[in-house]
Design brief:
Number of helices: 10
Shape: globular
Distance between the termini: 82 Å
CATH superfamily of the largest domain: Periplasmic binding protein-like II
CATH class of the largest domain: Alpha Beta
Keywords: Signal
Largest sheet: 5 strands, mixed
Strand content: 15-25%
Bound molecules: arginine
Number of strands: 14
Order of helices and strands: HHEEEHEHEHEEEEHEHEHEEEHH
Protein name: ABC transporter substrate-binding protein
Length: 275
Amino acid sequence: MGKTMKKTLGILGAVMALGLVLAGCGSKSTDNSVKKIQDNKTLVVGTSADYAPFEFPIMQNGKKKIVGYDMMIAQKIADDLGVKLKIENTEFPSLISELKNNKIDLIMAGMVSTNQRKKVVAFSKSYYTVQNVLLVQKKDADKFNNVADVKGKQIGAQQTTTQESIAKSQLKGSNVVTEGVLTSLTTELSQGKLSGVVVENEIANNYIKQYPDKYAIAKVKLTTPKDQRSVNIAVRKSDKALLKRVNKQITKLEKNGQLDKMFNEAQDLQVKSGK
Ligand code: ARG
């Protein structure tokens, strides 16, 4: 072997060795979030089941089961990971701390990716878009046409949600009443204890579909800030591998039309279950 040939092989070897080292670094820097879930054979999804058609309870063979659009997507993600799905139902205000404290792997609760939340958790691709409205009693459908009409009225909004901040900043002069569970507020609305509840359009539509004689959407216009419109899945910031896997699944479900199909199925299920 000639001298130059030897030299070339030497350099080639060095380049290959460097390549191996770099590849090694690459695989080390990917986290073990997916592996951990697969080792546990369970994906734990946190939700707040007061939010049909996204998540709501039904009775099945005498047992309470949490179903809905988010839960259908959660099942697809669990299937893709080859693990069982476990739903942790809790009040919406505790979900982010549950995620940060490793009690759950994902939040799927119709949660929008606000700039403030983005500081603490990572969000997946969006799988739904929302707007806010004021849900009122049917008999008051023509009573609340602008902000002045809600002055001095009791207006409900779920604690720590974007509805709370929208109610407080846009329905000035009203008394904003907050609770951890949304269904408590809508019950109070139907009893006349509240004059209105700020909710997202699909939630309002479902109440109206379910109880056409009870509820209506008021004419007063609410503005939904840009960062409060996209519904996403929340993941711990460190769980990069899991986030990648979740995004891949959302893209797939979007492309094959399953997302739309599942949303409609969830709505039908809610109407049938009478919840
Ligand atoms: N989209 C709103 C937010 O992210 C409300 C979500 C409430 N979700 C629920 N399951 N109750 O703040």
